[in-house]
């Protein structure tokens, strides 16, 4: 069961850094739908990519799986034999609920791991998903993870990277930021809720532009890189070996 997100509806005397704790887990599905423009379309894209890229006897990695929405979308759309899904998150509260929501013995089998995604070995992968995960890692650690993913992907494999982004043009950046603010207001969040959440996320979520992401992916070893979805300041980039 998911509850409506009212975590920040009252003034917080001391703003702390964001944590994916049990309180966030309880409201997470509602929070995602009301905060990320086009989230359901991103899941649809992942489903389509699953049908195109997942090969027999290969592995799929959902790095930063949270409650397992991506993992479940992938599993529903694998139509080849011998596959295995590895879902990883470093939040104890997220992983505990993910175990509850995912029946790991169904086909394709799912291994749910509590771990830092940077510590996971990538092997025999036909598809890797980083769905709003990279943005929570320190910038100087991101390239190493992307290199590990590129090396662990089989020939013809794919990475789908979804991120909140900034823009090179400061005028456009301010405009899109304000439009995202309006999006959250339209979805029932108050000014107080939006501002308090923004302050909590600011220190721990350094974001990059699409151009920076493309350069980083190229340096990691991907040869075909292109934007496949964008809604305001949220996007998905497809990277192929």
Which key phrases capture this entry?
241 residues, alpha/beta, 8 helices, 42% helix
Condensed summary:
This protein is of the alpha/beta class and 241 residues long. Helices cover 42% and strands 23% of the residues.
Provide an overview of this structure.
With 241 residues, this protein is of the alpha/beta class. It has 8 helices and 8 strands, in the order ααβαβαββαβααβαββ. It has helices spanning 22-35, 39-53, 69-77, 92-101, 139-152, 170-186, 191-202, 210-220; strands at 59-63, 84-89, 109-114, 125-131, 153-166, 208-209, 224-231, 234-240. Strands 1, 2, 3, 4, 5, 6, 7 and 8 form an 8-stranded mixed β-sheet that branches. Helix 2 packs parallel to helix 3 (69-77). The longest helix is centred in the C-terminal third of the chain and has 17 residues, at 170-186. The radius of gyration is 18 Å and the shape is globular. It starts with 21 loop residues before the first helix and ends with a strand.
Number of helices, where a helix is a run of at least 4 consecutive DSSP H or I residues:
8
Distance between the termini: 39 Å
Radius of gyration: 18 Å
Poorly predicted spans: none
Please tally the β strands and state the result: 8
The H/E string reads HHEHEHEEHEHHEHEE
Instruction: Give me the secondary-structure category.
Output: alpha/beta
Biggest sheet: strands, sense, closure?
Answer: 8 strands, mixed
Choose one word for the global shape. globular
Which band does the percent of strand residues land in? Answer: 15-25%
Proportion in helices: 40-55%
- Summarize model confidence as the mean pLDDT: 95
